[in-house]
Design brief:
Elements (H helix, E strand, L loop, with lengths): L1 H16 L4 H12 L6 E2 L1 H11 L6 H11 L7 E2 H8 L5 H5 L8 H14 L5 H11 L9 H10 L1
Antiparallel strand pairs: 1-2
């Protein structure tokens, strides 16, 4: 499935580029649907971007299967620069330099988060409240998955 999808995608990009940069066409398509401008696309944005390029993914299940093939860290967001690097066979420097997050226990992660919060001035409840307010991009008084993931990546 992955190889046939990539072959069709490269063909469509070649047709749309008209001799220009296929990678640039891909990046523009993803950026157009990246409404929160975070450099990643969620599954619905991924499907819309691929459709804009000219590929119809038959079912939602097929879309999720494809999306999950490229969402290697399972974050629910696909970094379109990494996707592009993968598609065009370029080394993924950001991914290869990323720390191995799978080797830490929840206690170790909580300890690291606590240390980072303290280093940013969150010593008590008020300081912690201030940090969470900063993380809450849409001022909803709660962190959605995107805001939480973004905050944890920042930390």
């Amino acid at each position: 499935m992955k190889k046939s999808f990539e072959k069709e995608l490269l063909t469509k990009l070649s047709q749309k580029s008209g001799g220009g940069s296929e990678e640039q066409i891909l990046m523009k398509s993803f950026k157009y649907f990246d409404l929160n401008n975070n450099g990643t696309v969620e599954p619905d944005e991924f499907a819309k971007a691929i459709e804009k390029i000219g590929i119809m993914i038959p079912t939602q299940e097929d879309c999720m299967t494809l999306f999950n093939l490229y969402d290697l860290d399972g974050s629910g967001g696909l970094d379109y620069k990494e996707f592009s690097s993968s598609l065009f066979g370029r080394p993924q420097t950001a991914a290869s330099n990323a720390p191995d997050r799978g080797m830490k226990t929840p206690e170790e992660l909580a300890g690291k988060l606590k240390d980072k919060l303290v280093s940013r001035g969150s010593r008590g409840f008020i300081g912690l409240q201030r940090q969470f307010k900063i993380m809450d991009d849409n001022n909803s008084k709660s962190l959605d998955k995107y805001e939480f993931t973004k905050a944890m990546n920042d930390f």
